[in-house]
Amino acid sequence: MKKVRVAVLGYGHLGKWHCQKVEAHKEVAEFVAIVEKFPASQEAAKAAHPGVRIVSDIKEIVNDIDAAFIVTPTSTHFELVKYLLENNKHVFCEKPVCSNDNEASKLKEVAAGKNVILQVGHSERFHEAWDKLRDKLQSLPTPYSVRINRYAPFKGRATDVDVVQDLGIHDLDLLMYLFKSKPISVVATGYKIRTDKWDHASIYLKMENECEAHVVVGRNATREVRDLEVVSKDGTIHIDLFANRFAVATSGKNEDGTFVVEETYGKRDHLFLEHKNFYESVRTGRPAVVNLKDGMNAVHLVDCTLKALDFDTTITVKLA
After folding, report:
1. How far is it, in rounded angstroms, from Cα 124 to Cα 281?
2. How far is CA 181 from CA 50, 143, 293, in A?
3. What is the layout of strands, in order, in the sheet containing 225-232?
4. Which CATH superfamily is domain 4-124+271-291 in?
5. Mean pLDDT by 10 residues, the chain (320 residues)
């Protein structure tokens, strides 16, 4: 089977990592081009990848590729995804797949009937913890309560979007991926601290079967925290995504007389796994591991959250 001819669109902080992963899959991928409009980044790309074409516009190489990785600012995603789909190219788009519900519905129309793969880069789905815990989380008795925290000190990146689009989208997607009860409404409060956009948000989601979730995201914290905790009548499960460990406290006593069982798990290269899954889907026709519907639902929850923040009201969720 021939190699997948690939371009990476964007040579910023994350684009550099994507380029490395393309080269790490050279047995299945042919690295054709890097699309980058800024001269300084073009020079950096030439130095790091001397055998790869460096161009400033996707139109220059669209006929020479089978697939593209979109690693550009969020505001550009819609037009790039749309253009690539219209030209029957396979697409991997970093999250979010687009900026809002209106753009998402238009992408759905363009993608209809296209025999191509569209995978969205929701990398938090690739933690080894979910291999061990997702079945348990999916079968929890209702109601249950979920709390997710994701905040860190200011890093000066991704300030073209708010913290919900930048960080919160990871956890809003995890809610839909890990739990059977889906969000039905959202309210939120937040603060604009470093930028003119939301830099901190506290998001409350009412879910099916009387379940609830509270997601806190921030980019101006004093320390870095990434964790998830769920409580039900069966007990408590806490996952520390930063320390790669989880703990389970059931409703009874363990065989050794303790009440809490702790376990660590390995750190994975999520980006490598995303690439691996994308190439396998392109080469075999297997559905994308994170598809357009998944991406649209994440965008919808972000859209609902931003409306709840902007208008200080409860917003009804309508998932695809």
Report:
1. 19
2. 49, 9, 17
3. 261-264, 245-250, 235-240, 225-232, 145-151, 212-218, 200-207, 183-191, 315-316
4. NAD(P)-binding Rossmann-like Domain (3.40.50.720)
5. 94 96 98 97 97 97 98 95 98 96 96 95 97 97 98 88 94 98 98 96 98 98 97 96 95 81 95 98 97 97 97 96
